Amino acid sequence: MRKNSSSYPVELVSDVFGDSPVLADILSGVSRVLLVADLNVVQRTAGLGTKIGRYVQAHGITLAGSPVVIGGGEKIKSDGLQSVQTLATAILDAKLGRDDVVLALGGGTLLDVAGYAAAQTRGGVQIVRLPTTPLSMMGAAFADRASVNLASVKDALRVASVPKAVVVDPTFAATVLDGVWRSGMGEAARLAVAMDTTLLKKLEKLLPDYAAHRPGILDEVVQAVLATRAKKGGSDLALWAANRFESLSGYKQPHGYGVSLGLLLEAQAAVARGALSEADAQRVRDLLQGCGALDGLSHAQHLLQQADALLCGLDAWLLGSSEGVPTLSALGKSAPAAAPDRESYRAALKGMCAG
After folding, report:
1. Fewer CB near the terminus (10 Å): N or C of the chain?
2. Residue 116's closest CA among 134, 152, 91, 151?
């Protein structure tokens, strides 16, 4: 077991609904559990329902009614709170209280919507997060808040949402689409570039195997990322840009690709400011390109040319932050800037348009 910087347990488990007692131990003492699952996960994971049924029966876990299954993807965060209301209604119908738990099984958007509904219903219901995509295993599952979109603003509505625990099972990622797999390395790279050059070197070493989908490689990547998180916490570097790329595209640009574009933008802007060498920026680009996380770059050229609109994302971030916008001060180091250098971002966007 690892402790995250927020002190809740983080468990890395293979086949969580198999013979492992980890999830059952986390849920011991819990009265009832409401399972909320991502439709994509349910449809692509053979025999999942039967496996969960056997697991809860074997470990004496009491389910609070039938599982709630909703679609995944950014649309459930942008539907005018309809998905939130669906889950909140299910929580009310099940009469969940403080001794109960919402078990959220899915990608980052499902974790957000489930967390938002759980935090807002009956004064707050506990949540255990079980992320199923590479990006959520390394990023979204560890957020201390839950967010949904409103009026084309990414994560406009936010509430505090600290999980009871996070259980990471890399075997779920075997069923994700190839683009979801590729963009997962973008989140790992973002944390490495922001916080830890040792992690960066590890990812560079593992890159060929990750690009080739070698069995077991995700376990190694996630384990390395979790070790960094346990030691150094997290970072919001590049997330302002990732959010802006998504919203400007009408959420056609997936979050994973937005993260990778945002990280490349931060690296190039740091070069323009003199904070990063061209060689270090190339390391960032090579890592992202090598795993395919920059496949969204060719489809984002029209966004890169909207510098004024993109840089509005800086203002949006500053409105919601008391510390400033995280920027790179060196490879493996980031610091908040109350007045970020916009011209460096403009120069970086021009360079990204050209190449």
Report:
1. C
2. 91
pTM of the predicted model, to two decimals? Answer: 0.94
Q: Which of 320, 319, 311 is nearest to 340 (CA)?
A: 311
Instruction: Give the alpha-carbon dihedral of 126, 74, 168, 162, to 10 degrees.
Output: -30
Which residues are registered as beta bridge partners of 166? Answer: 10, 129
The string of pLDDT tens digits covering residues 112-154 is 999 999 999 998 999 999 999 999 999 999 999 999 999 888 9
Whole-angstrom Cα distance, residue 61 to residue 58? 8
DSSP count for the chain of H helices, then E strands:
15, 11
What is the b/e burial string over 242-270, where b = at least 16 CB atoms within 10 angstroms of the residue's CB?
Answer: bbbbbbbbebebbbbbbbbbbbbbbbbbb
Band of pLDDT at residue 253, cut at 50, 70 and 90: confident
User: Residue 72: helix, strand or coil by DSSP?
Assistant: coil
